[in-house]
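Researcher: Let's do a round of design. I'm pasting the structure tokens now; please hold your answer until I've finished.
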């Protein structure tokens, strides 16, 4: 009886291994992607059908003009003589939608007038340019877009979430002479793979041409996130699964390359509570070229 030599046995084992890998790897990859990019629960009529997106995706490179919108030095805010550090940019994520309503209260959906339930959040954002002498100069007339999830971690205007015709928790304001915009919204919910956050984008225009675009994300204190999610309607979704430090966007360097790690530490909203409403303030320091 013919016996295979050792080299031929090794060759056959190697061939079988390759075949098994070819068969199994696509299944593993598909399963991993399914878990990462969405979960659809077999919900009853009284439960919410929702998709949990993982938003960090690939980290796309900013254009040279977008990078130029980042300030590289701190500025002094007078008359308080307060030093404000440059604010790092982070990725836009896949769910920015332009052309949202010009409004300060973004809780409602203009398609049917319904309002999102959640703990009220009044957000005050100050936008500053850095002058040649190192002073913080209010940036007037800048368009500031804001968008975030509802209490259950769902975005509006996303087809895969069944909200393509909705625009709740989206809108923009134009900065006043103090470089300030104010939004009335709700405390955001969480979704799988991300810490709780709000997206923000600042742009200025020369006619129809964009001459400044600065984009980032804002975060909250971990302990407050946990407290919020013990209350309705957030408690229906359970406690947040990802802390700031575990979030890949928060813990990475900034998209503009100016902060090498933990860029989210510079993007925490200063939060206070006024009766049943949270009031958040945040200063954005960017490079507008003194426009």
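Researcher: That's everything. Go ahead.
Model: Designed sequence:
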């Amino acid at each position: 009886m013919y016996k295979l030599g050792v080299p031929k046995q090794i060759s056959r084992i190697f061939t079988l291994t390759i075949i098994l890998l070819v068969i199994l790897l696509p299944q593993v990859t598909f399963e991993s992607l399914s878990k990462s990019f969405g979960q659809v629960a077999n919900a009853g009529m009284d439960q919410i059908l929702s998709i949990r997106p993982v938003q960090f995706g690939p980290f796309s490179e900013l254009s040279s003009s977008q990078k130029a919108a980042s300030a590289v030095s701190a500025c002094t805010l007078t008359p308080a003589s307060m030093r404000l550090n440059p604010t790092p940019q982070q990725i836009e994520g896949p769910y920015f939608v332009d052309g949202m309503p010009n409004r300060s209260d973004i809780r409602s959906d203009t398609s049917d007038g319904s309002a999102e339930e959640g703990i009220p959040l009044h957000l005050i954002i100050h936008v500053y340019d850095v002058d040649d002498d190192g002073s913080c100069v209010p940036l007037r007339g800048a368009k500031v877009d804001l968008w975030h999830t509802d209490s259950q971690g769902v975005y509006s205007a996303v087809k895969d979430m069944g909200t393509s015709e909705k625009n709740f928790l989206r809108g923009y304001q134009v900065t006043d002479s103090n470089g300030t915009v104010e939004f009335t919204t709700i405390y955001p919910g969480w979704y799988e793979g991300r810490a709780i956050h709000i997206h923000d984008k600042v742009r200025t225009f020369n006619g129809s041409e964009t001459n400044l675009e600065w984009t980032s994300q804002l975060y909250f204190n971990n302990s407050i996130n946990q407290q919020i999610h013990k209350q309705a309607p957030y408690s229906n979704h359970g406690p947040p699964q990802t802390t700031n430090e575990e979030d890949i966007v928060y813990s990475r360097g900034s998209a503009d390359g100016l902060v090498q790690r933990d860029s989210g530490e510079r993007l925490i909203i200063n939060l206070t509570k006024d009766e049943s409403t949270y009031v958040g303030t945040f200063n954005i320091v960017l490079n507008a070229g003194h426009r």
